[in-house]
Amino acid sequence: MSTTQAGMTQTGTATSLLRFATAGSVDDGKSTLVGRLLHDSKSVLADQLEAVEHASRRRGQEAPDLALLTDGLRAEREQGITIDVAYRYFATARRRFILADTPGHVQYTRNMVTGASTAELAVVLVDARNGVVEQTRRHAAVAALLRVPHVVLAVNKMDLVGYAEPVFAAIAEEFTAYAASLGVKDVVAVPISALAGDNVVEPSAAMDWYGGPTLLEHLETVPVGTDPSAEPARFPVQYVIRPQSEEFHDYRGYAGQLASGVLRVGDAVTVLPSGHTTTVAAIDALGESTELAWAPQSVTVRLADDIDISRGDLIAAGPLPVPTKDVRATVCHLNERPLHVGAKVLLKHTTRTVRALVKEISYRIDIDSLEQRSGAEGLSVNDIGHVVLRTAEPLALDDYTDNRRTGSFILIDPSDGTTLTAGMAGEAFDTVSTNGAPDAPEEEDWV
Length: 447
Hints:
This protein is an alpha+beta fold. The protein is 19% helix and 32% strand. Strands 7, 8, 9, 11, 12, 13, 15 and 16 form an eight-stranded antiparallel sheet that branches.
C-alpha cells in the first residue's frame, strides 16, 4: 500500500464513503426501495417512522408506506411520485453513504443528471413484470454519459412474478447487453422485493436460487474511489492568501481543493493557462505543514517562484490539458429556456468563470436509440447534445472520460445567474461518432 493509500485508510475519507444514485421508471417502487433500505439498515429515527406510520394510516394503509421516507415534498406525496432529487445520509458498520434518490419521470431527466453527476454507483430499478423499458434505457444511458463506474440492476417486485428465476435472468441479460453497448463495464443484477424486503438488506428465503449479495451487501463492498497517486494532479486555485502583517509579509499561498491526484513538496508543476512552471515549496493543511496532499483535501500550496496567479488558475502536474478557447462538449440542458446557437453565456469550470458564446450545436442525442440528430438550432430542457463554445479566455479542461472533476462545467445565464446547462468536455459515448454539423455563426464582441 502506498503512503497516500495508507493515509486515506487511516483518516477514513475516501475508502469508507460511497455516493450513489437511484433511478427507475414511475411505479417501479424506487421510493419504496430507498425507504426499505433506510428502514432495514436501522437508519430511520423513531419520530420519522412514527410520522410515516401516521401519514400511511391517514391514506387508509395498514402497513407504513416506506416510500414516504424519501418523497418529502407535498406534491410528491399527493401524486405518489418523486419530483426532486432527495439526498439521504446513512451509515452501516462497514461504510457511510450519500444517497441521491432521483425522479423517474421523463420530464425530470435533468434531475437524474444532477443526482448522478457525483455518484460512483447507480442503482437502476426495473419492475419484474415489465422488464427493460424505454425509461430504463434512458437511465442507463445517462449513467454511461456521466461515467458512473458501477451500475446495479435491481429487478424489483419479484414477489409479483412468483420469484421466478427465468424472469430475472432474461431481464438481467437484456439490460447487461444494453449497458455494455454504452461502455458500462461493471453491472451487477440483484433480484429484490422492496415491499417484502427480499434481498434488500437481508437474504431472501423465497429466492434460494440466487447466490449473489443483497443490495446493501453489494453497496458495502463495491470498490470505491481511485488511488490518487495514479491520477494527474489538478489543483484549482480558489483564493490567494497574502497576510497583511510584518510577521508574514513574505507569505504567498494558494488555497483550494485538490480535484485529483497528489501534490508533494518538491514536485514540478505548471500553472495553467499561463504555462509558467515552478515547484511546490510547501503545503499547509489545517494550519500545519505537510509533505503531501491528495484529492479531495483542501490545502494551501506555496510555490518556489513568484508567479502571477489568481483565482481560477490551475496548478497541475502529470499529463497536462491544452488550454483552449474552443470547447467541444456533450451537454445536458437543465433550464426551461432553450439554449440556442449564438447565445451569450458564462462558463464556470472549477473555480474559473469566463464569458462564452455558443458557436454550434453539432447534434442532439436521441437518448433512446443513441442516434445523433444533426441540424438542431437549439436544445430544450432535458435535451442532451454536443456543442462547440468559444470562450473569452483559454480554459484548461481535461476530457470528461479522464477526469470527471476537471472535465465538467456549467453554463450560466449572465443576466440573472441561472444555471442553464451541465457540460462534459469531449464526446458522449465512445460508440457514437459525430455527424455533419451546421456552419457556425460569426463570433461576436462577447468573446
